Amino acid sequence: MTETQTVSPPTKRPVRQLLAASVGNAVEWYDWYAYTFLATYIADQVFPKSADNSLVPLLSTFAVFAVGFFMRPVGGLLMGAVADRHGRRAALTVTILLMGGSSLLVGLTPTYATVGVLAPVILVLARLLQGLSVGGEFAASTTFLVESAGPGRRGLFSSFQYVSTTVGQLVASGIATLLVNTLNDGQMNGWGWRVPFVLGAVLSLVGFWIRQGAQETRSAEQQRAPRPGLFEALRRHPRESLLIGGITAGGTIAYYTWTSYLPTYAELNAGIEKSDALLAGTISLAFFALLQPLGGLLSDRFGRRPLLLFFGLGFALLTVPLLHALRDSFAVLLLVQCAGMVLLTGFTSISAAVNAEIFPPRVRAAGIGFPYSLTVALFGGTAPYVGTLFKELGHSGLFPWYVAVLCLVSSLVYLRLPETAHAPLRR
């Protein structure tokens, strides 16, 4: 089927489609990232303190962060199946309601001093539900965005996946920075850290309302076809599933290192003040969001592979010197973060398009969701824990090499990746 044989309504109202996907996605990721930016406060309140090692609560908090990631493949598979069987909009509606409920649960989690071991149990449950939601969100919104794009605009539309993700992260970082700079430690530890999560639950209802006006992008032919099985994408397209894993491995470790873990890494390894680290992260995220549409447009013009190689080889060569350059300086931290954001755009601005162009429409959402989310769980979700663990073991210098090697491996995949930018999207 050619690109002219598409569903007409989505391409007639592209701005509305972008808004429906982007606002909901921003809310989803705001809820998800608020946990990362407030990890040190959650550690103090929800986990027991160790008299021998002050890193134990922080390690526990990042372990829960990683646990949430391991629900993302399940969410990618289940919500992807919902999107392939019942429509992209139906899946997007479920994921945002699920995220709102789990965010509220985090905000209401009692302290360890109040209920003991039940506190971390409740937190783990909330993060599992958030992981389920985020895994499904990426599968459904990636498919929805790319299928909404007109000819020659899939890269541009793809870039809004990370524009909205970054806006959500930026709002979470900004609110965390505001709270840290206006509340004292007692207030932050007492109730301040809960505010962003309760707010996230409210914002989820706003996103739900906006998504009610979205138009379905699954073609009429696909709606009439027999529903795909839950594991059909894995069973019938194993090569494509492995390919998405190879494409994603380097991108996810670089992304979560630079956008989530770097403030904590700078605190632990360079002595940066917590408030300065959060502020530098907020500024660099705003810069990153502005770069995404540019990357998408460049890929529509010159192809996906050149941008992927720019990212992969750039991180393979520069991760170690950039992270080793960190010291107790706000300016240096900001420069390191912004340099990484430029390189990272080569991956983030087009990953949604690259993934969607690999799978046929019948199993596109589930086909993307499971291997992508599994790879993110293995390498992205564990990045803060691995980095902190290296620090505890006295080998913090190994972490940059770990990131560089994974980016090099993905670069080898990019070299053999067929160019899909100018080929018709299968409908």
TrEMBL record:
Instruction: Using the record, list the residue span of the signal peptide; answer none if the entry has no such feature.
Output: none
Q: Name one GO cellular component term.
A: plasma membrane
Localization of this protein = Cell membrane
Transmembrane found in the keyword field: yes
Chain segments annotated as coiled-coil in the UniProt record: none
Keywords from UniProt, A to Z, are: Cell membrane, Membrane, Symport, Transmembrane, Transmembrane helix, Transport
The name under which this protein is listed is Putative proline/betaine transporter
Q: What organism does the record attribute this protein to?
A: Streptomyces hawaiiensis
